[in-house]
Design brief:
- With 234 residues, the protein is an alpha+beta fold.
- It has 2 domains: 130 residues, CalX-beta domain (Immunoglobulin-like), CATH 2.60.40.2030; 56 residues, no CATH class.
- Helix content is 28%, strand content 29%.
- The chain contains 4 helices and 12 strands; from the N terminus they run αββββββββββββααα.
- The strands form 2 sheets. Strands 1, 3, 5, 7, 9, 10 and 11 form a 7-stranded mixed β-sheet that branches. Strands 2-12-8-4-6 form a 5-stranded mixed β-sheet, with no helix packed on it.
- Strand 10 and strand 11 form a beta hairpin.
- The longest helix is centred in the last third of the chain and has 27 residues.
- Pfam families: DUF4843.
- This is DUF4843 domain-containing protein.
Length: 234
């Protein structure tokens, strides 16, 4: 009799444990993420492109906080608080699909070169948007040095600002101006003219290349005039 009572107690305890197990399965989370030494914000300027562009794409890394699924899932991103960029004029945030079985994806932020960007820097706060397949995942530093983020800030413009290194190379390229720098980018395909980037060869050879290109430009168009009304020279 005692043995049967003991078995009944064990059965009841097992039943209670089964009832306490939660069967709820909510949506997995998703976040942006950056590596250990990767910044959590970025700046983009159309002015540094060797070829004029009306649009360009910046890719942000995203990962699932949860398990892989055997079906495609939809990811949505929205412009968060603090954004000054205008949807459809300065950026597009497409809805994308995470392939079945995948845990990471590159999200394409489409930047649009609006006319106002020559004088104004616009800010886009790209933020994870909850949806039917994903909620906003847990954020913070992870094992391995990566950091999960709910949002990433992108500052976008079509402006050129005098680089901090210019004094080091002024003897090679002359006084800085935005128009001169744009010409340098167009001719060379480079956007970084620091001593570390161009080396000794570039320091001596690039000015020659630029003078030749400027002579060709002037033969067709006349002097190249910068934003201050000065003639561009090298």
């Amino acid at each position: 009799m005692k043995y049967l009572l003991f078995l009944n107690i064990l059965f009841l305890m097992a039943a209670c444990k089964k009832e306490n197990i939660s069967t709820y399965k909510g949506p997995d989370g998703i976040t942006f993420y950056v590596d250990e030494y990767e910044p959590d914000s970025l700046s983009y300027s159309f002015a540094y492109s060797p070829v004029p562009k009306n649009r360009d794409t910046v890719f942000l890394k995203m990962r699932v906080v949860g398990a892989a699924a055997d079906y495609p899932r939809v990811i949505s991103v929205t412009a968060g608080a603090g954004s000054t960029a205008r949807q459809g004029k300065d950026y597009e945030l497409p809805e994308i699909t995470l392939p079945a079985g995948a845990l990471t994806v590159l999200y394409p932020v489409v930047l649009l070169n609006s006319p106002e960007m020559t004088t104004t820097t616009f800010r886009l706060v790209a933020q994870v948007a909850p949806g039917k397949d994903f909620q906003v995942g847990a954020t913070g530093r992870e094992t391995g040095g990566t950091t999960s983020l709910e949002k990433i800030i992108i500052d976008v413009s079509n402006k050129i600002i005098k680089p901090s290194y210019w004094d080091e190379v002024e003897s090679a390229f002359g006084a800085f101006s935005e128009r001169k720098f744009r010409f340098m980018v167009q001719v060379t395909g480079l956007s970084d003219f620091s001593s570390d980037a161009i080396g000794v060869d570039g320091y001596y050879n690039l000015p020659v290349k630029l003078r030749n290109a400027l002579a060709e430009y002037e033969a067709v168009n006349g002097p190249l005039i910068d934003e201050s009304g000065n003639v561009v020279t090298f």
